[in-house]
Specification:
- The protein has helices at about 1-20, 25-45, 50-75, 80-85, 95-115, 125-135, 140-160, 170-175.
- The chain has a domain at about 1-125: Four Helix Bundle (Hemerythrin (Met), subunit A) (Up-down Bundle).
- By secondary structure, the protein is an all-alpha fold.
- The longest helix has 26 residues, at about 50-75.
- Helix content is about 75%, strand content about 0%.
């Protein structure tokens, strides 16, 4: 199990470095999904399957969809359709596909190999996560929620189209 932890950690680190170093937003997004999946496998190995499920559902699902919507919102040009076709070529999926396949193999190995707890000594359930988050860490949870809301408002502000707004009484004066 320790070797699986190190391999998964290495995949998470490599995928995160690939996210930072990619110039293409779609490539970075694919590696970001692999990074989130690797962190979810680490959570599962440490005895927190609820946190692993939240990692996949919230981060690899919802936030990636939000990023795709922001990319679509900011990408308003007609010539960008051809560029997107180039971004989704088959060779783009090779790196993230290999890393994801390794993660899937590790997860199957972990589930099949032993019936005991993988690396953690106790199971962390949803109630313990809720008590921990909304107990001593309530300020951190609220601040991260505020930061996410500020990011959404900022993305909307940057992505909206600027158009000339003319009052209805002034429309006739311009003609």
């Amino acid at each position: 199990m320790t070797m699986s932890f190190y391999i998964t950690s290495l995949i998470a680190i490599v995928a995160t470095i690939m996210v930072i170093t990619r110039y293409n937003m779609i490539h970075a997004l694919l590696y970001l999904v692999v990074s989130f999946l690797a962190v979810a496998v680490i959570f599962f190995m440490l005895g927190a399957p609820f946190m692993a499920a939240l990692e996949v559902i919230i981060y690899a699902g919802a936030i990636v969809v939000l990023i795709i919507f922001v990319i679509m919102m900011l990408n308003l040009k007609e010539e960008s359709v051809e560029q997107e076709r180039k971004w989704f070529s088959k060779n783009i999926w090779i790196g993230p596909g290999i890393l994801s396949f390794i993660l899937l193999g590790e997860l199957v190995y972990i589930l099949v190999s032993s019936g005991t707890m993988p690396l953690g000594s106790t199971m962390v359930d949803a109630k313990a996560v809720g008590i921990s988050l909304y107990g001593p860490y309530i300020i951190g949870v609220e601040l991260s929620g505020l930061l996410l809301m500020a990011g959404i408002v900022g993305a909307y502000h940057l992505g909206r189209q600027r158009r000339k707004v003319v009052h209805r009484f002034l429309e006739r004066a311009e003609e």
